[in-house]
């Protein structure tokens, strides 16, 4: 079973830094979301004492994304957040496709 969740990009990069320091690989930005989610789940299990297998996907490397890591480490990377109202207003502008 899976559940879709949203994770702020700064938390994703924090997870990527932990991953790089422990595994010796710099992940591309895309799998940092999975890394952050796996860390969240592992910490939850640690708090509750639950034992489970946590599977995450890792693809690519971050060598071409080092400017993003630099931005994060300098504190210049910010999380974006939009209100439900703004999201719905944007979605209402998507044309309906009728087949």
Automatic annotation (TrEMBL):
Protein name as it appears in the record: Tryptophan synthase beta chain
PANTHER family: TRYPTOPHAN SYNTHASE (PTHR48077:SF6), TRYPTOPHAN SYNTHASE-RELATED (PTHR48077)
Co-factor(s): pyridoxal 5'-phosphate
Keyword Iron in annotation: no
GO MF entry, a single one: tryptophan synthase activity
The keyword Ribonucleoprotein belongs to this UniProt entry's keyword annotation: no
Organism the protein comes from: Saponaria officinalis (Common soapwort)
Keywords recorded for this protein, A-Z: Pyridoxal phosphate
Gene Ontology cellular-component terms listed: cytoplasm
InterPro entries attached to this UniProt entry: Trp_synth_beta/beta-like, TrpB-like_PALP_sf
């Amino acid at each position: 079973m899976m559940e879709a969740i949203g994770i702020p990009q700064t938390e994703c990069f924090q997870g990527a830094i932990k991953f790089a320091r422990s595994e010796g690989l710099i992940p591309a930005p895309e799998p940092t979301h999975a890394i952050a989610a796996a860390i969240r789940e592992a910490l939850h299990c640690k708090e509750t004492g639950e034992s489970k297998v946590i599977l995450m996907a890792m693809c690519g490397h971050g060598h071409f994304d080092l400017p993003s890591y630099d931005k994060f480490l300098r504190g210049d990377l910010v999380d974006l957040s939009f209100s439900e109202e703004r999201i719905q207003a944007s979605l209402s502008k998507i044309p309906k496709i009728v087949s």
